């Protein structure tokens, strides 16, 4: 064999004649001469080709090791190897391309099945791919370089193998789990080629190309490079590829969209695999931190983070490594304030990983924590969420203490600082040159008898120095711990405000943070835990589940050695949460505790037992914890009623009998717990207790006996007790009648016995009367009405069960209106008649107390009388009509803020019950928004918000009073006003419709609001105007208001309002059309400057044509502002007249010459003379005011209502003339 097989660049080159001794294909057979299936026969005979290559792998090792190959045999074997490898690689590439093409063509559509015939060949190749790669690897792992001359393997052979491997890597499924064997084989084969066949330069170039064109290969390429570096020891390739990426300019990266993302993902993945290899070349990547690509900045920051976590961490770093660590941390710190939000978020996440890995030096804790706290106010949701995660990581992995209460840390710090001071004082006493204090000098004989050796003196000094340094380190540690705890405490208040963000993920992270700080016993951590409690009512399921999980983690999963210990811990933690908790907090906590008690278990039973022991006093405990125990029992009763129902006698004997006067709060909480059993009423019949039950005897006695006492807690107990009577008693009206009689007799008896009856007793009696009246009406309209409806339903079901026998009776009842809706109306009319005629008789004692405050000056009596009067007014429309004027008089003139606040609440309830009666008095309600007392304003804005948002009150111009509260000095009132407008903005066009009236009312000279406050309010209100059509309409409305505005301040306010609109082209066009409305006001700076700012904002980023229009409008504003509208219009008239005089109009011929015909122009002498001005016998009268426009869109004649009160003596010309000049 005298020829040599040279691997061609492409397959077609094999048929072209080459140099001397080069192999050329002589006979190319046609397709039909091939075996069955044509070219696809390779699928059946591929094993033959594979066996040839496998034979090389078996026979070549022995031949190469023997070293007895002649030149001819070496050539034969070399040609065989080349031909086999070439054929196998090219067939592999061809089959891979066909497989990928077939997978695209035969991809199943939605709802269709994949055809078997189209996928058989592809499945067969998928099974053979790994076999081919394994065979190539086995061959190339042999040292076949001696087959070549001088052991130099030709580049074509290397390229043939590597190109096949890269072709296989381009498969989109190569990164899938099922392709892992083939992927690992390709990486290993390429590693062999780089290690043995000098392919590193080609691999570097090819990896960059793959990343540029195939974004999904970022992870695969990172895995390959890491494998080559670690398994094959080719660490230089990591640096080569990093330098290649680092040399990419910003212009190149901007042109490569997917390539940039691939580079970023490659670097991030590679840093997790071989961070130590990347350190020497990290500097080449730092240039991208100053580039424009945020993805590359993120990748570099993640590389730095992995290096810091995996390599540059610990206390045993060398000086150079420590310098690199500090430099990398400084770089990350700078990019916490990156211009791109994605970079900021990822840097915070990198810091979170560093803190979780405890790789952040202690000296940087404070600084990084301050930066994270600053990012809590970031506009980006992801940045804010990442900042919360970082702060939680700081607390969870802090190196200081498991308890971070600054108050608890202060005591040991003071103790150790005092000890350090003592030690320093002792050291100063021992220093030479300073005589020790209060120590007698040694005599000569003592010195001679006990001479101190130099070694003893040195040892004592060393020990003293060591102890002093230890003490200094301890004091510094305690100082750092206290500083860290204080920093965490400052963070809590900020994150607590994020619990009610609109973004779910931020709320979830804030909830987790509150749980973390509570677990570390940070001071004021319970504030966040309590604040997040109302989120159990959230409409967002994920937020609700986060809160439930947080409370279960904090309170319902106690730690202990036994069930009893766990129950004790759980009760202690829940009791601590309920101490001094508001009623709203307790209601929210019921949802969580109810779910816990709903699950049957040993722990739940133990908890109930511990709670009963605390309540009954079997265990020594405080009154606060007894109240918490009975409330928790009530929450358990919502899940299992028998917890309370079977122990009513215990509740009565402990809290409602003789010792009830000692603690009315315990009695009140007991009544609240008993009320929870009424929530389990069945639809069949309501659960009620008989009148002679021990519970009602105790309640009646406790209420009536307390009337003549002066305990301030009796009022709240009485209200809940009367409520419970109406919920549980079979005849509550009879019981309460006896209760009122007994209470009245006690007061009369005191009076007859010559005991002084103070105003407090009368106030408590009035409160009792008003409470009974309120619940009596509620009982009639709810319980009695529901019972009548239930009985009617049962009766109708019985009649239906009887069948046709009762059909005649049913028809008669329908005619009489005793069924269906008519029956319901009859029942409602019956209840209304009872309320109007039977509940009240005689004169009201409350009326003289309310109408004559001078005769009854006691504050508590006046408060109780007004509240009772409002409760009586709920009974019927007639009672409300008779006393409505008196109640509003009390609202406006009462000097007591509590009376005015109670009156607002009562009037809100009356507005819901009798809206037609209260509608004329709406302005009086809005007037309380400007009350001098903050508590009254707070109550007013709360009540009005509920009435407006529930569509009970119509939204009118009086809402401007709510807008004023946006600047209230009380932050809570301002936040409620802001919430009012946020909710109102959700209603269609509500704020848009109100804005003109709000502006008019706030800019009224009689109100006297300063400009800064007006601008602040308007800025908030105009932020709700987002629709283009609304903006356009508001521009016209506000411009029209210029006509009726009387003062310069009103003009200025209107101009400022216009400038706050987000104006677009249509709005600007409408502003130009309304030029007549404000043009005569432009001499005022307060009008000119806001309009000029509108032009400046429109000019930014505008198109060229629109920009020219804006600039022309701006020039027009400036001219009128500088010269005045009168002078500008006068100049325009003069210019128009001069042009009319000097420039004659051309005289057009009546007949036009025909096209193509010659004609002569007759020249007359008169044509060369200056024409004389024509004198008109009659001058056309000029209209005094014209509002013409080029478009002639609409008639602009002012109506009588639009005529300004202050007329301006100006003459107006046509719009075309003014625009020309």
Task: Using brief descriptors, characterize the structure shown.
1221 residues, mainly alpha, extended, disordered C terminus
**What's the N-to-C terminus distance?**
100 Å
Class from helix and strand fractions: mainly alpha
Shape, per Cα inertia axes: extended
The mean pLDDT is: 78
Our estimate of the beta-strand percent is: under 5%
Total DSSP E strands: 0
Radius of gyration: 46 Å
Report the uncertain regions: 107-118, 433-450, 1140-1221
Counting DSSP H or I runs of 4 or more residues, the number of helices is 54
Largest β-sheet summary: none
* Share of helix, binned: 55-70%
Keywords: Cell cycle, Cell division, Chromosome, Cytoplasm, DNA condensation, Mitosis, Nucleus, Phosphoprotein
Subcellular location: Chromosome; Cytoplasm; Nucleus
GO biological process, one term: mitotic chromosome condensation
GO molecular function, one term: histone binding
How are the elements arranged and paired?
Layout: H1 42-66, H2 71-105, H3 117-140, H4 155-169, H5 180-197, H6 200-213, H7 218-230, H8 236-246, H9 250-255, H10 257-273, H11 275-278, H12 294-310, H13 319-334, H14 341-356, H15 365-374, H16 381-396, H17 406-430, H18 444-449, H19 454-496, H20 504-519, H21 525-531, H22 541-556, H23 563-578, H24 583-597, H25 602-616, H26 623-639, H27 642-645, H28 648-656, H29 664-675, H30 694-707, H31 714-728, H32 732-752, H33 759-802, H34 807-815, H35 820-837, H36 846-851, H37 859-873, H38 877-893, H39 897-913, H40 915-918, H41 922-927, H42 934-949, H43 960-964, H44 971-985, H45 990-1002, H46 1011-1022, H47 1028-1044, H48 1048-1059, H49 1065-1073, H50 1075-1078, H51 1085-1099, H52 1104-1123, H53 1125-1142, H54 1215-1220
Helix pairs in contact: 1-2, 1-3, 2-3, 2-4, 3-5, 4-5, 5-7, 6-8, 6-10, 7-10, 10-12, 12-13, 12-14, 14-16, 15-16, 15-19, 16-20, 17-19, 19-20, 19-21, 20-21, 20-22, 23-25, 23-26, 24-26, 25-26, 26-29, 28-29, 28-30, 29-31, 30-31, 30-32, 31-32, 31-33, 32-33, 33-35, 33-37, 37-38, 37-39, 38-39, ...
């Amino acid at each position: 064999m005298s020829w040599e097989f040279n691997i061609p660049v492409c397959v077609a080159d094999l048929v072209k004649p080459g140099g001397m001794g080069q192999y050329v294909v002589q006979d190319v057979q046609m397709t039909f001469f091939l075996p069955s299936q044509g070219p696809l026969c390779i699928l059946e005979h591929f094993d033959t080709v594979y066996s040839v290559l496998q034979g090389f792998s078996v026979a070549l090792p022995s031949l190469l090791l023997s070293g007895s190959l002649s030149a001819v045999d070496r050539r034969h074997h070399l040609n065989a190897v080349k031909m086999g490898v070439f054929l196998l690689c090219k067939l592999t590439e061809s089959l891979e391309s066909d497989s990928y093409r077939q997978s695209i063509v035969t991809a199943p559509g939605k709802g269709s099945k994949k055809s078997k015939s189209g996928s058989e060949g592809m499945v067969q190749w998928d099974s053979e791919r790994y076999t081919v790669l394994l065979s190539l690897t086995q061959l190339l792992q042999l040292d076949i370089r001696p087959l070549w001359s001088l052991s130099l393997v030709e580049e074509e052979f290397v390229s043939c193998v590597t190109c096949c491997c890269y072709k296989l890597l381009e498969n989109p499924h190569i990164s899938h789990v099922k392709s892992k064997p083939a992927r690992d084989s390709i990486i290993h084969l390429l590693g062999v080629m780089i290690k043995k066949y000098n392919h590193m330069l080609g691999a570097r170039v090819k990896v960059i190309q793959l990343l540029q064109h195939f974004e999904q290969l970022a992870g695969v390429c990172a895995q390959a490079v890491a494998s080559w570096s670690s398994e094959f020891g080719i660490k230089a390739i990591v640096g080569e590829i990093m330098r290649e990426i680092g040399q990419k300019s910003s212009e190149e990266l901007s042109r490569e969209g997917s390539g940039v993302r691939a580079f970023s993902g490659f670097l991030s993945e590679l840093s997790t695999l071989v961070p130590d290899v990347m350190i020497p070349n990290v500097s080449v990547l730092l240039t991208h931190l100053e580039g424009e690509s945020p993805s590359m900045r993120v990748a570099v920051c993640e590389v730095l983070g992995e290096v810091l976590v995996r390599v540059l961490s610990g206390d045993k770093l060398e000086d150079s490594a420590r310098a690199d660590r500090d430099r990398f941390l400084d770089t990350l710190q700078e990019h916490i304030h990156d211009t791109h939000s994605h970079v900021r978020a990822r840097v915070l996440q990198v810091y979170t990983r560093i803190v979780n890995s405890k790789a952040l030096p202690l000296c940087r804790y404070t600084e990084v924590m301050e930066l994270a706290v600053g990012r809590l106010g970031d506009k980006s949701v992801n940045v804010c969420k990442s900042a919360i995660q970082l702060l939680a990581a700081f607390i969870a992995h802090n190196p200081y203490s498991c308890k971070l209460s600054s108050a608890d840390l202060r005591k040991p710090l003071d103790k150790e600082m005092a000890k350090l001071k003592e030690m320093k004082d002792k050291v100063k006493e021992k220093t030479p040159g300073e005589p020790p204090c209060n120590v007698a000098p040694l005599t000569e004989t003592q010195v001679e008898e006990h001479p101190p050796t130099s070694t003893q003196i040195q040892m004592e000094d060393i020990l003293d120095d060591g102890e002093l340094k230890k003490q200094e380190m301890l004091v510094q540690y305690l100082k750092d711990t206290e500083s860290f705890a204080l920093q965490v405490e400052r963070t809590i208040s900020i994150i607590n405000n994020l619990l009610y963000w609109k973004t779910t993920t931020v709320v979830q992270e804030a909830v987790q943070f509150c749980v973390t700080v509570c677990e570390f016993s940070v001071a004021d951590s319970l504030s966040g835990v309590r604040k997040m409690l109302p989120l159990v009512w959230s409409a967002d399921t994920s937020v609700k589940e986060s809160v439930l999980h947080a409370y279960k983690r904090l309170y319902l999963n106690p730690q202990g050695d036994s069930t009893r210990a766990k129950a004790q811990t759980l009760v202690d933690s829940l009791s601590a949460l309920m101490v001094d908790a508001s009623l709203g907090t307790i209601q929210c906590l019921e949802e969580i505790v109810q779910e816990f008690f709903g699950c049957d278990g040993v722990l739940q039973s133990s908890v109930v037992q511990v709670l009963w022991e605390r309540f009954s006093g079997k265990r020594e405990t405080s009154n606060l914890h007894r109240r918490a125990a009975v409330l928790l029992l009530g929450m358990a009763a919502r899940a299992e009623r028998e917890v309370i129902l079977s122990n009513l006698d215990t509740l009565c004997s402990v809290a409602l009998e003789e010792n009830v006067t000692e603690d009315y709060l315990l009695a009140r909480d007991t009544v609240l717990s008993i009320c929870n059993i009424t929530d389990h009423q069945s639809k069949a019949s309501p659960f009620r207790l008989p009148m002679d039950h021990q519970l009602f005897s105790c309640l009646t006695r406790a209420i009536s006996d307390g009337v003549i006492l002066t305990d301030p807690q009796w009022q709240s107990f009485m209200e809940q007790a009367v409520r419970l009577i109406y919920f549980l008693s079979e005849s509550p009206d009879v019981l309460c009648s006896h209760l009122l009689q007994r209470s009245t007799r006690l007061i009369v008896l005191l009076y007859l016995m010559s005991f002084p009856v103070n105003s407090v007793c009368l106030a408590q009696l009035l409160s009792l009367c008003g409470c009974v009246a309120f619940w009596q009406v509620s009982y009639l309209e709810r319980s009695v009405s529901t019972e009548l409806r239930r009985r009617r339903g049962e009766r109708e079901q019985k009649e239906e069960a009887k069948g046709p026998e009762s059909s005649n009776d049913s028809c008669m009842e329908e005619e009489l209106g005793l069924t269906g809706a008519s029956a319901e109306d009859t029942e409602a009319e019956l209840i209304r008649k009872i309320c109007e005629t039977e509940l009240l008789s005689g004169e009201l004692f409350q009326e003289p107390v309310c109408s004559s405050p001078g005769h009854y000056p006691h504050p508590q009596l006046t408060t109780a009388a007004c509240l009772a009067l409002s409760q009586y007014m709920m009974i019927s429309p007639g009672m409300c009509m008779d006393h409505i004027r008196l109640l509003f008089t009390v609202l406006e003139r009462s000097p007591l803020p509590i009376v005015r606040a109670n009156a607002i609440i009562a009037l809100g309830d009356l507005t819901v019950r009798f809206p037609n009666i209260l509608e004329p008095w709406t302005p009086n309600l809005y007037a309380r928004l400007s009350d001098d007392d903050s508590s009254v304003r707070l109550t007013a804005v709360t009540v009005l918000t509920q009435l407006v948002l529930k569509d009970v009150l119509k939204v009118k111009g009086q809402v401007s009073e709510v807008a004023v509260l946006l600047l209230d000095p009380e932050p809570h009132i301002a936040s409620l006003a802001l919430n009012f407008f946020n909710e109102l903005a959700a209603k269609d066009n509500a704020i848009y419709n109100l804005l003109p009236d709000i502006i008019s009312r706030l800019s009224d000279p009689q109100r006297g609001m300063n400009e800064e406050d007006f601008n602040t309010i308007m800025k908030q209100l105009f932020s709700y105007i987002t629709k283009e059509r609304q903006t356009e309409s508001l521009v016209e409305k506000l411009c029209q208001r210029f006509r009726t505005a009387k003062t310069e301040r009103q003009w200025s306010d209107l101009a400022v309002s216009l400038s706050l609109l987000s104006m677009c082209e249509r709005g600007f066009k409408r502003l130009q059309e309304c030029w007549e409305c404000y043009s005569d006001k432009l001499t005022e700076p307060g009008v000119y400057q806001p309009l000029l700012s509108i032009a400046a904002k429109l000019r930014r980023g505008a198109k060229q044509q629109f920009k020219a229009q804006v600039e022309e409008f701006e020039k027009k504003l400036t001219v009128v502002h500088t010269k005045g509208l009168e002078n500008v219009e006068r100049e325009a008239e003069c210019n128009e007249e001069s042009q009319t005089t000097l420039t004659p109009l051309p005289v057009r011929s009546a007949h036009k010459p025909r096209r193509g015909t010659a004609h002569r122009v007759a020249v007359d002498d008169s044509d060369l003379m200056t024409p004389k001005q024509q004198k008109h016998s009659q001058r056309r009268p000029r209209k005094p005011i014209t509002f013409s426009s080029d478009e002639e869109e609409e008639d602009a004649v002012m109506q009588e209502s639009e005529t300004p009160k202050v007329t301006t003596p100006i003459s107006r010309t046509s719009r075309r003339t003014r625009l020309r000049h």
